[in-house]
Write a structure and sequence with these properties.
By secondary structure, this protein is α/β, with parallel strands linked by helices. The chain contains 13 helices and ten strands. The protein starts with a helix and ends with a helix.
Length: 291
């Protein structure tokens, strides 16, 4: 499940952008998310921001196969810094910014789930750029997940949610936001995956059971306007309160992921305007999503 999530963060971000050239990855971990971008031929530069210098060294030693030797790729620059400080002080802008921080109850990580952080990311996007963010459902409670999603949607009102569920069992999700409305040309996406220069992308996706563009898009789990009633009372996490850091601790060792996922999916509606496809393909996608 973790491998699938990290591949989703990388490949969804790259594939839902028409031509991602510059990418910022917040947090190295095993390097899998950053390594996904190595496979995309359009990508010219990857900035990997990691606060702990030991992590990339360990990732390169133990996970080079899974992350496609990302730390040795000439397009990659590793910046050892706090992500908030780096984004605040850099003049660079990116086509993709993706964050996969540790659970928000770990001291300091809730700062990567605040309204100010998402607004900061938004200011560092090129036109058409997008932001993706990991949100765990496991070891969490509903108030926490609602706060995380509502805070993200406060910055990206038309944001979308993509589910890393295993056979309908909720685990975690990816939030995706853009300044401009998101439109996904389904046939064009499949054509892109069918190109010879995307063969390694296809192989990477197949390793986590995504065999077609339809499989990947079938993870669609909702968007901002549909979830407004569910999020009506959610508390926004800000730099001034960092409420999430304390609330999230209530979810430690709690197993409510399935219930939270079911509540989320119950409010999902098929987004007619989001997907551009011929009627037959759109019907297939509707069936795959479950609406």
């Amino acid at each position: 499940a973790d491998m699938r999530l990290q591949r989703m963060l990388g490949h969804l971000s790259a594939l839902l952008h028409p031509k991602p050239r510059k990418v910022l990855v917040v947090g190295c971990g095993a390097g899998v998310t950053a390594g996904c971008f190595v496979l995309h031929p359009e990508v010219e530069r990857i900035v990997l921001c990691e606060i702990e210098p030991l992590i990339p060294k360990v990732a390169s030693r133990y996970f080079a196969k899974e992350n496609h030797a990302v730390v040795d790729d000439p397009r990659v620059e590793i910046v050892y810094d706090d992500a908030r400080h780096y984004i605040l002080t850099t003049s660079q802008k990116f086509d993709v910014i993706t964050s996969d921080p540790i659970h928000p109850w770990v001291k300091g990580s809730a700062a990567l789930y605040t309204r100010e952080y998402f607004d900061l990311c938004k200011r560092h996007l090129n036109p058409g750029g997008l932001v993706t963010q990991w949100v765990p459902l496991y070891e969490s409670v509903e108030d926490v997940v609602q706060s995380e999603i509502a805070t993200f949607f406060a910055a990206f009102p038309e944001g979308t949610i993509w589910s890393n569920d295993i056979n309908g069992e909720g685990y975690d999700v990816v939030l995706l936001g853009r300044v401009e409305p998101l439109r996904i040309d389904v046939p064009a996406l499949q054509d892109r995956l069918d190109r010879e220069d995307h063969a390694r992308v296809v192989e990477s996706l197949r390793e986590v059971e995504f065999h077609t563009a339809l499989d990947l898009l079938a993870t669609y789990a909702g968007q901002g306007p549909d979830l407004a009633p569910w999020l009506a009372d959610a508390q926004i996490n800000t730099d001034r309160n960092l409420r999430l850091q304390y609330l999230a601790g209530l979810g430690l060792n709690v197993s409510e992921g399935q219930r939270i996922y079911d509540d989320l999916i119950a409010r999902r509606k098929f987004p007619e305007r989001l997907f551009i496809a011929p009627p037959i393909e759109k019907l297939e996608l509707r069936d795959a999503i479950g609406n």
